[in-house]
Design a protein that fits this description.
The chain is mainly alpha-helical. It has helices at 2-12, 15-33, 37-43, 56-78, 85-107, 112-130, 136-155, 164-170, 174-193, 196-212, 216-232, 238-264, 274-293, 311-315, 331-358, 362-381, 385-400, 408-419. Helix content is 74%, strand content 0%.
Length: 422
């Protein structure tokens, strides 16, 4: 019974199953949003922005993307990337440096030397951490220090959650992106390797700091990543995870409603209906993207190179002043390259998640939990350059652990149980 239960938990949190479930829930909520009077009123003209509910074609393309991702995960598992660590690791690190440099170049008016210095510093930090992956105390210490430091920089001029302008500026701030990465990394390591009560308190502190940054995705990533890692490593039970997810839903509802009120001045969608409104809005944007770019694309690369996705607001919705608009996981690829962009996005992501899921020991399970949670968030937000940097960084750390050792999970977890919970 215990073995069967473990298999069921692992299967449910495998990328092909979990991502499909979350995407189906997203599509269902988007569909329901146009059936609920309160949300439909603020989605459709005259009080909303859209003339009609999303088209059938938008749903078909979404299901196509889910199917491609499902089968691509299986390809990722078959790649013998762990057997080519000596070659793959430096290549991935070079890709991190190149992608980070490109993101800085496209976002900030900095001299080339400054761009290379910043990108090189991040790459060096990643390399330095990779050399200490088996020193958990060191990893948690440095990760927490960096998370609190970058949170301080983000909140230095005032909490972005209190101001729409500050939130817009924080969206592209490197300090917030680095806080996100180190806070999530800290959370999964804490739940995996430390006494549960102390770990939980620190994780919730990180989530509060994330909420103050004005982005619900940061707080969600911290809590959900820790929950998935804890469940996979049997540090928490399914019941505890369910209670945690309930807390996440309440947090999301409160933060999202508050942010909406700050952004729009007046907000009349009931708090418990906000998640339906939000999914309906995002999927309606994707439907507009489909109308513009089916079948061969529209912007041909400009969207994926936009680090803020503000281009969606101007090119798709016709905004005069650019705003950050989400368009689902498939939106950027669809807007740039049409159906091919959808297939490319989902195939790349599926292969990546398949590789991450196949590399399994305690540390790699933590990294996989982060990658899976980030994918859940991208179902609404969409792929950006910063996400590619994040994914590559996680892959580099996973490869840096060395060749997978199948027996290591049980050994490490036995140590955890005898030391952390005693």
């Amino acid at each position: 019974m215990r073995y069967t239960k473990r298999l069921k938990t692992d299967d449910l949190l495998s990328p092909e199953i979990s991502v499909a479930i979350v995407y189906f829930v997203f599509l269902f909520f988007a569909f329901i949003s146009f059936k609920i009077a309160n949300t439909r009123e603020f989605l459709l003209i005259p009080r909303g922005y859209f003339a009609n509910a999303p088209s059938f074609l938008a749903y078909v393309i979404s299901l196509l993307g889910v199917a491609v991702l499902f089968f691509s995960v299986k390809i990722g598992r078959k790649l013998a990337v762990a057997q080519a660590v000596a070659f793959a690791t430096p290549v991935v690190l070079a890709c991190v440096f190149a992608t980070a440099s490109l993101a800085l170049y496209l976002t900030f008016p900095l001299p080339v030397l400054a761009i290379f210095t910043i990108s090189g510093s991040y790459t060096f930090l990643l390399w330095f951490i990779s050399k200490r992956l088996h020193d958990v105390d060191f990893l948690i210490s440095i990760s927490l220090v960096l998370a609190f430091f970058f949170s301080f920089l983000t909140l230095l001029g005032g909490a972005p959650i209190l101001s729409a302008a500050s939130r817009q500026a924080a969206a592209i701030a490197p300090a917030r992106a680095l806080f996100h990465g180190f806070a999530v990394f800290s959370a999964v390591l804490l739940i995996a390797f430390y006494e549960k009560r102390k770990a939980t308190a620190t994780i919730f502190l990180l989530a509060i700091l994330a909420a103050l940054s004005g982005f619900k995705s940061d707080a969600t990533a911290i809590l959900v990543s820790a929950g998935i890692a804890g469940l996979l490593l049997k540090r928490i039970s399914a019941k505890e995870l369910l209670l945690g997810l309930t807390g996440v839903i309440f947090l999301l509802t409160a933060v999202s409603t508050y942010i909406a009120g700050i952004s729009y001045g007046a907000w009349k969608v009931a708090p418990h209906l906000y998640i339906f409104y939000r999914t309906g809005l995002t999927f309606s944007v994707f439907d507009r993207v489909v109308q513009l770019s089916f079948p061969f694309g529209y912007l041909h690369g400009s969207t994926l190179l936009s680090t803020t996705q503000e281009i969606v607001s101007t090119a798709v919705l016709g905004y005069k002043e650019p705003h950050i608009i989400t368009s689902t996981l498939l939106g950027p690829g669809m807007l740039d390259f049409g159906v091919f962009g959808v297939v490319l996005t989902c195939a790349s992501l599926g292969i990546y998640l398949g590789m991450m899921h196949d590399l399994r020991d305690a540390m790699r399970t933590c990294l996989y939990a982060i990658a899976l949670t980030h994918t859940f968030i991208l179902i609404e937000v969409g792929v950006q350059l910063s996400s590619i940097i994040f994914y590559l960084s996680l892959l580099y750390l996973a490869l840096s652990c060395g060749k997978p050792r199948p027996a290591i999970v049980s050994v490490e977890l036995q140590k955890i149980k005898t030391t952390a919970d005693s």
